[in-house]
Each structure stands twice: as C-alpha cells, then as structure tokens.
Amino acid sequence: MEIKTTSKDNATTLSLNGRIDTATAPELEQAINKVIDGGQRKVLLDFAGVTYISSGGLRVLLATAKKLKNPGDKFGICALSPEVLKILKLAGFTSIFSIYPSEGEALAGW
Questions:
Q1: Would you state the pLDDT for residue 81?
Q2: CB neighbours of 20 closer than 8 A, spacing ≥ 6?
Q3: What pTM, to 2 d.p., does this model score?
Q4: What are the CA-CA distances from residue 47 to residues 7, 63, 85 (Å)?
C-alpha cells in the first residue's frame, strides 16, 4: 500500500493506493496515528486508489473515529470505489463515518 500525506485548509489528507488488509492495516494505522499525534485533528482518508478493505482495515477506521470524536475534530473518507462502498454498507459503517464524493467536497464542508 502507498500512503501520501498532504495538508491544506487546516486538514490532513492521506491518499491511499492499494489494498487495506491484514498485512497493510498496521501501516495505515501508524500513518494516521502519526498525523493525530502531530496535533492534527482534521483527518480525511482519500480512498480513490483503494480496491479492497478487510476487517483489519475496518478496525483501523473505527479506532480513528474513536480518537477524533472531540468538538472540532473531523474524520472523513472520500472517493470510495463501488466495491469498497459496498463493504462499508454491509458492515453498517456508512452511518458511522462521514463519506464524501471527493476531497474538495469534504474539505469544503469542514
């Protein structure tokens, strides 16, 4: 998995490319924790390049949502492929996370 981190509009976007599975979920969690531990409380995950997410990846998303639940915090996911969106829907996660069509639309709402 490739993770590219960019900051703009007082938010940090992690652009992901590849599969989020048992092997790569720890890498994603480390990258997210590094951003949060650095003081950033507005985190967006850009899933444009994500082709699959496993239960391990879903666990990372839940853990991140729990860390970013204070007033002023923002956590969202954008640019989901139909396959990944289907997995999130089946897991019941679409009601838990803020999901946006694109990075621009997510950041505009923050």
A1: 97
A2: 1, 28, 50, 52, 53, 54, 56, 57, 60
A3: 0.96
A4: 16, 17, 10
Each residue's pLDDT tens digit, 1-48: 999 999 988 999 999 999 999 999 999 999 999 999 999 999 999 999
Rg (CA), the chain: 12
Q: Domain 2-109 is of which CATH architecture?
A: 2-Layer Sandwich (3.30)
Distances (CA, A) of 109 to 29, 52, 83, 105: 25, 26, 25, 6
Which alpha helices (H) appear in 19-54, and where do they start and end?
Answer: 25-37
Give 42-97 pLDDT, tens digit per residue: 999 999 999 999 999 999 999 999 999 999 999 999 999 999 999 999 999 999 99
Q: Comparing C-alpha atoms, which of 7, 73, 15, 71 is closest to residue 45?
A: 15
What is the rounded CA–CA span in Å between residue 5 and residue 94? 24
